[in-house]
Amino acid sequence: MSADRETLEVYNARAGDYAQTMGRDPAAMASLRAFVARLPKGGRVLDLGCGPGSWARAMLEMGFEVEATDASDAMVAEASKVEGLAVRKAVFEDIDDVARFDGIWANFSLLHAPRAAMPDHLARLYRALKPGGVLHVGLKEGTGERRDRLGRFYTYYTVAELTGLLADLDMVTDDLREGADKGLDGEVAGWFTLTARKIVPDTEARTDTA
């Protein structure tokens, strides 16, 4: 999660409201099922910007090993109520794992970071994935950076912009989904989600088949 102070203040104050509204989006659930279908059985997943832990709970119930992070104290407290979930307070810059996760679920969390910081954040997630690992990203669709009426900071992206950033990391993207929903601020906004795979280097592929 971003370290933006105003954004964190909103989530700290509205964590309970957010917990009640999450998990009702069928498009997001379809994305979740498509995401986990690409993971090895019982694989390790990072829920980046986990909020109250709704998606992390679902993945735990599916049999995955889940670690979760969020920068909001209140969201960490909410997510910590999920039995069996390892939760820690962290901002995006704290992700320094190397080849640890089979999958990373970044569902509408990276949109709170400034556009200039996105290449570094994606590079960190790339390093944190195992070869062949899968990254799910959800963002609001559009251009520019601005705050919503609650004061949360948002960066808006086009599909082409995000796929370009992922291509720079030699990641292959698919499973594009688009829609529009009413957010915590009461505004209807367009969004998209997609997945990207970390390509297995040729040398490793040859070793695996030797």
From TrEMBL:
Domain of life of the native organism: Bacteria
Coiled-coil parts of chain: none
Any one Gene Ontology BP term: methylation
A molecular-function term among this protein's GO annotations: methyltransferase activity
Protein name: Methyltransferase domain-containing protein
Organism of this sequence: Sagittula stellata (strain ATCC 700073 / DSM 11524 / E-37)
